[in-house]
Amino acid sequence: MSLTQKSKKFLEDLHIYLLSSGKNLNEIKEITKELEDHLLEAEANGKSVDQVVGDSPSAYMESISGEMKSDLASWTKYFPLVLLGPIAFTIFGDLINGGELAYSLFHIIGIIVYTLLFIIGVAIVLKYTSKKQSSVTKEIFILSLPIIVSMLFYLSVLFLDTMIDTPIVHFGEIGSIVIGSVVFLLIIAFSIWSKTIIIPVVLLALFLPDILLKETALSESSKLIIGMFITYSLIGLYLFYIFVKERKKQQGSE
Amino acid sequence: MSHTQMMKGIIDGCLLAIIDGKECYGYEMAERLGEYGFDAVSEGTIYPLLMRMQREGLVTSVRRASTAGPQRKYYSLTKEGKQALVEFSLRWQQLEKSVNAVLKKEME
User: Which top CATH class is B3-106?
Assistant: First the structure.
C-alpha cells in the first residue's frame, strides 16, 4: 500500500512550505505524518487527495501553518551567548594570566558600546522579523547581521586598542574579583536559563590548559601542543555529547 | 461571518462530541463527520482545528499502535474540552431553537 504521486507531492510541498515558514521541526514531522496516515487510509478507501485537502492545497497549507508557532524563539536564546562570550573570554584570560584587571579607557568604552550596539541591533531585527513572514534563510541572515556587526566592532576595538593610547584604568584586587565574580554569575545564570553549558565548556577548554601547564617544566612548544590538544579534545567531546543527545531526542520523537 | 467560518465553529463542536464519545484518530473523525452528512467539508479541515484545540488544551493526543498496524495519533478530551462541549451544546440548542422559530414564523 503506497500513496499516489499526487499525495506524495502534496506532502512534500507541505513539508517544504512549513520548513521555509520557520516552523518547529518536530511539529512539522508530526502533522505531515498524521496527514500521510490519513491520505493512505483515504486512498485505500478510494478517495482522492482533493477530498482530503480541498480545492486549494495552498489555502490548506496556509491554514495548517497558521496553527503552528514559529521556531525562532528556540535559538534566539543563543544571543546572550554571543554577547557574553567575548567579554568573558577577555576578562577570564586576563584574570588567569595577569591577576589584576587593567584596561584602557578606550577598551572599556568599546565594551560598553559593543554591548549597547548588540542589544539595540538584536531588538531591531527581532521586531522586524516577527512582523514579516519571510523564508528561514532570509530570517537567519537578517538575525545574524547585528551579531556580525557587533563582533567586527569588538574585534576592531581589540585591534585599535594596541595602537591608540588612552589612560589605563586599574581595577585593583577587589575590583578584579568583583568583576570576575559578576561575569561568572552571569555565565551561570545564562547557562541555566538557556539550558546549554556551551560558554563554560568553551572557556574551560581555552583556559584549562594554561592553568594546568603553567607550573610544569615543559618547554613552551610542548605546552602549546599539549594545550591545543586539550582544548580541541574538550570541545570535540562536548560536540560529540551534543550530537548523541540530539540523536536520542530525534529517535525518541519518531 | 463567512460560510466557512460558521462551519468551522460548528465542526469544532461536533469534533468535541465525537472525541468525547470515544477516543479516536483523525481519519475516524473525518469518516464519522461524513456519515453524519458533513460531506461538503474536505476531510483535512479537521487537522488545523485539532491543532488549535490541542493548543488551547481542549484535547490531548497520544501516539499508539492501532489494531490494523501503523502508529496513530489518538485524541481524547481534557476537562476543559468536556466543559467546552457542554457550552457548545447549550449554545447550539439555543441557536437551533431561535433559527427554527424564525423560519417557522416568517415562512408561514
Answer: mainly alpha
The ipTM value here is 0.86
Q: What is the pLDDT of residues A192-229, one digit of tens each?
A: 887 778 788 888 888 888 888 877 887 878 877 888 88
Q: Is A18 on the interface with B (CB under 8 A)?
A: no
Minimal CA separation from B99 to chain A, in Å: 29
Strand runs labelled E in chain A: 102-104, 168-170
DSSP state of A213: H
Question: What residues contact residue B53 under an 8 Å CB cut-off, 6+ apart?
Answer: B12, B15, B16, B59, B81
Cβ contact A38–B44 (<8 Å): yes
Q: Do A41 and B27 contact (CB within 8 A), yes or no?
A: yes
CA angle A120, A126, A129 (to 5 degrees): 140
Is any Cβ of chain B less than 8 angstroms from the Cβ of A60? Answer: yes
Q: Which three cell numbers stand for residue A137?
A: 534563510
Q: State whether residue B3 sits within 8 Å of chain A by CB.
A: no
Q: Sort out which chain A residues have CB atoms less than 8 A from B11's CB and list them.
A: none
Whether A47 and chain B come into contact, CB under 8 Å, resolves to yes
**Residue-wise over A66-103: b if at least 16 C-beta within 10 A, else e?**
ebbebbbeeeeeebbbbbbbbbbbbbbebbeeeeebeb
